[in-house]
Structure formats: C-alpha cells, structure tokens
C-alpha cells in the first residue's frame, strides 16, 4: 500500500513522534525518581518507556517497510548495504534539517522572545519572571550550539554512507594551532571553538581550550572539561 502523502502517513509520523517523546520523557522521570529513592516508581517509568519504544518501532516499520529485516540469511551483501545506506540517508536528512532549518529558526525565535516587550517586562517582575527570561537566553544559546552539533552529526553520517558505498574515507587531523583548534565533547558532541569562546559561561572569544578554567563544563550536557577531546577536521588538499 502506498501511504505517501496520505493522512495515514501523517498520522503514523505524528504517532511515532509522540511515542518517541514519551519514551525519553519516561526515562527522564525514571532517572528523577531513582534519584529520589523511589525505586519501584522508577522501575515503572522505565518499563513503560520500553513499551513506548516498541510502539514507536511498530509505527516506524509501517512508515519505512524498506527497513524491515525479515530473514537476514536470505539477504545478499548488496541488499544489506542498501538497507544500511537507507538508514544513513534518513539520518542525514534528519540531522541536516535540524542544523539548517530547525535549530536556526529556534535560535532566532528564542532571541526574539528574549528581546521583546514581554521579556523586558519579565526582567522587571519578580524572580520567577527573571528566571523565565534567563531560560529564554539559555535556549537561544543552546540552540545555536546544537546547530553545529547537528551539522557534525550529518557529516559523520554522510562519511559513513560514503565508506559503505566503497569510497575512501577523507583524512582528518587536529589543528596544531591552539588559537584555532576546536574541541568536541565525547558525551553530546558540543564543539568548543576558541575563536567564539563561550561568553555565556564567562569564556571570552579567543580563549584557547587549554586556558579554560578546569571547573568549566559543557553548556549543553554539563560534562566536565575532561570529557572534551581535540576535534579533527577534514584535511584539505
């Protein structure tokens, strides 16, 4: 059955998104309740999260029947590569949308919220309103950072697809200049660029990674400075 452009296709996509969000939300709740010492409640949230995953997988199989693997033994190597390539293509599509459209738009909207009259009013109100304004500022900052992260993810998937198709991987290396050497968080892929610094965390533009205080942490995931490694970029001929 061709579901392209049908209401059912749209509903499947929405259901997949809803179940996926529920999975991550319940896992978050599970972690919160675990920290609170409520182990049985944490277990309930985790079990339900796993069930939501199965629901999401069922929807995704209907959305992309070309990815459904039945008898693996009956597949040729070319068929296996085609399925893996399709997974990478979809991953590239999603990550590219995030860094070219979604996060840039979110960044601009967050900046607008921060600077509009409502936020000015927030600044003049009680602590709760000031907290809301700070949240908007944090969102604008993080959306900007995530634009680079999703760009990085898309490139990683693109390179993996090229290798799968038999192409030689491009050479990469870290910069020898601390003033331009970027560093990447192993936990969330946030990329620290010394040229830009991290002004929201008190790190001025032009600050080499080695000069950052040891108590600095990743502005996206909160990982320590030790979680970062030199970022290797493609070597241009």
Structural class category:
mainly alpha
Broad shape: globular
Q: What's the total count of β strands?
A: 5
Low-confidence stretches: 116-126
Strand line-up in the sheet with most strands: 3-2-4
Number of helices: 5
**SSE arrangement, N to C:** HHHHHEEEEE
Keywords: Electron transport, Iron, Metal-binding, Transport
Pfam families: Rubredoxin, Rubrerythrin
GO molecular function: iron ion binding; oxidoreductase activity
Protein name: Rubrerythrin
Give a structural overview.
- The protein is mainly alpha-helical and 237 residues long.
- The protein folds into three domains: 1-63, Ferritin, core subunit, four-helix bundle (Ferritin); 70-169; 171-237, Rubrerythrin, domain 2.
- It is 59% helix and 5% strand.
- The protein contains five helices and five strands.
- The strands form two sheets. The protein has a three-stranded antiparallel sheet with strand order 3-2-4. Strands 1-5 form a two-stranded antiparallel sheet.
- β2 and β3 form a beta hairpin.
- The longest helix is centred in the middle third of the chain and has 39 residues, at 77-115.
- Residues 116-126 have low confidence and may be disordered.
Provide a brief overview of the structure.
The chain has helices at 7-35, 39-63, 77-115, 117-124, 127-164, and strands at residues 172-173, 183-185, 191-192, 228-230, 233-234. By secondary structure, the protein is mainly alpha-helical.
